[in-house]
Amino acid sequence: MRSVLGVSLLMSSVLLAGPAAAEPPPAVAAPEPSVAAPVPSTGPPAPPPAAPAMPPAAPSPVPPAAPAARPPRIVSTDPVDWTPHVTDGRVWAMALLGDTVVVGGEFTATTDALRQATSRRRNLMAFRLSDGQLTPLAVDLDGPVYALAEAPDGSLLLGGDFTLVNGRQRRSLARVDPATGRLHRSFYAPVDGDVRTLAVHGSDLYAGGFYRSVHGLPRAGLARLDAMSGQLDEGFEPGLAQGVGNRPRAEAMSLSPDGSRLVVIGNFTRVQGRERHQLAEFDVTGPRAVVTGWSTAFYGADRCDSRFDSYVRGIDHSPDGAYFVVVTTGHDSGPGLPCTTAARFETAGAGEHTPTWINHTGGHSLYAVAATGSAVYVGGHQLWQDNPYGHKTMGPGAVERPGIAALDPATGRALDWNPTRSRGEGVRAFIDCPQGLVVGSDTDELAREYHARIGLFPYPPGPAVQRLSPAAEEQGNVS
């Protein structure tokens, strides 16, 4: 079971078409022209700059795939019928605790699968994955939940932009009972900003976001704490620095499966005095945060629309830890550019790394990614994949993949899996689990069926091989 929990949050007002939908404050970057739901803006954005002339690094060759013990399994394109619905707002994060899916975000109510009973749930709810039954979990929160994780004892860790939990002061980070919602008062970790991504390994809790301090001690956007008490690990100082346009922040992160490496993405350009453009890998096996020799210049700050202080949005490791995939926004598009793409990086070795492959949407943002081994699922408000030659248009060889897609892990090309999704602003969370792929978003349609903001694409009864889409087989269209 693997949960993709990091929440990718755009720090700006976004100029988008459709009904209003807010990204988390505080705003620092300028609007993104796009086709998703809008956030109020103070005025029209400046015309987007041309894509930088910086020559892209050539992708490294794809290593031969290890022989599979059985054919790869891809989830069905037909969602199950029993998941409940979140009736308003958006889902930012999800976590799987046993048979319970916990859902966090900005919303006020849920209904059962048949839409016969409405329950008030503000920003946090849970249901049984096996039958969709809503659980009693209810927590009184005065702000959104952006990140979720399971604590070592099975309790639930919440990250977000709230100040009160069940009437008690808890700034942006809290631990609750997942069955009842009762606040664990023994956990206390005051943060002076928002928390938008969480990861747990053993007793260690990694919390990333947009803040300056934890427990009153300087920590620019990333800290390690005790997962049960919230006590700050004072020896662990990541040293994120030189945030583009603002103080540094961690947008999302992914732990390697063995817990030894933490890869963080955000708006920083230096880490512990070393140049690291929007992505850094840490060795977290010891008492201190040690930035490794792994690096990439692919996400340089000047390579996409300059109105974005950061364009990296989501990251996930493969189950074997051999690679991770990063997804981005950035408005611009073109062969070799990092904007509005999914890109695979190998984890082995030190020094400069270039992507193994890059899949382009042609100018539409991706926010969430789940690398399952059999596929790389990506979600956002994209219309197409395999589209390096289009800019908000369908270029030669592109394939239609509205709102959600599956890519071949070895080549990066779109698989012939296309359930479709009403696009809105985009998918923000995936859970990859034995039952299938759970999807959290801000719209109410999956596979042309009503599934409001939550859905589960199940695995079929037997293993199945997914072929590339016909256009992908003909064109290749991956940088």
Automatic annotation (TrEMBL):
Residue ranges of the region described as Disordered: 21-81
Keywords: Signal
Domain of life according to the entry: Bacteria
Biased composition (Low complexity): 29-40
Biased composition (Pro residues): 41-70
Signal peptide span: 1-22
Pfam families in the cross-refs: DUF5122
Name under which the protein is recorded: PKD domain containing protein
